[in-house]
Amino acid sequence: MFESVLNKLKNAYERRLPDYKAMSDLELYNAAKPYLTDDSCGLTELEDKPKVFALILEMASRWYRDNGALSGALIGGEEIWYVEFEEARIDHGTVCTVSYKDGVLDSVGIDFDYDEFDEIVGKSLGKRLFKSENAAKLALHNWQRMQNETGET
Q1: Which residues of 56-95 are buried (b: 16+ CB within 10 A; e: fewer)?
Q2: Alpha helices, DSSP H only, in the chain?
Q3: Who contacts 9 (Cβ-Cβ below 8 Å, separation ≥6)?
Q4: Does residue 69 contact residue 125 with C-beta atoms inside 8 Å?
Q5: With contact defined as beta carbons under 8 Å apart, do 98 and 108 qualify?
Q6: Are 93 and 110 in contact (CB under 8 A)?
Q7: Is the pTM value of this prediction over 0.85?
């Protein structure tokens, strides 16, 4: 019986929270902005804490999704993005094969959307090869900014 009451309370609590998963990144940032103050976290009301924790969880989940190229093993069937810096292009593909040597990623076989298969060296993960489109876009943007600052083309 206690478990049933607890579940009812949990469901009522979850319905009160905004749907942070449905928000864009900008909307999520704007929802969190009132809680960010110079003196760490501006939590004055106990009722704000669940909202803040839910916001933090959603932001952390998105960060992990977008920066997953820095951790975790690749598996076949996983989406992947390859950055062609010189051509300012990002190619989407699907991981077909993965090879590890001594626990370190050695190579990745990718079936690209434009019907071409290519094998990429494992050291490219997190440099040219990314587990999220957002991480690939950020890498391309940073590379282009650096090129503009140094005057290189």
Answers
A1: eebbeebeeebbbbeeeebeeebebbbbeeeeeebbebeb
A2: 2-16, 25-32, 48-66, 133-150
A3: none
A4: yes
A5: yes
A6: yes
A7: no
For the four alpha carbons of 51, 55, 58 and 64, in that order, the dihedral sign comes to: negative
Q: Which two tokens stand for residue 24?
A: 């864009």
Structure-block tokens of residue 29: 């940032």
Q: What is the percentage of the chain residues whose pLDDT exceeds 90?
A: 31
Rounded distance between C-alpha atoms, residue 43 and residue 45, angstroms: 6
For the chain, the maximum distance between any two Cα atoms, rounded to a whole number of angstroms, is: 70
Q: Which residue has the tokens 């093993």?
A: 73
| pLDDT reading at 111 higher than 90 | yes
Question: In 10 A of CB 120, how many CB atoms?
Answer: 18
Q: What residues are paired with 83 via a beta bridge?
A: 90
Q: Which residues contact 128 (CB under 8 A, 6 or more apart)?
A: 82, 83, 85, 120, 139
Looking up tokens 């969190």 gives: 32
Tens of pLDDT, residue by residue over 26-84, are: 787 788 777 766 555 555 555 667 777 777 878 777 776 666 555 567 889 999 999 99
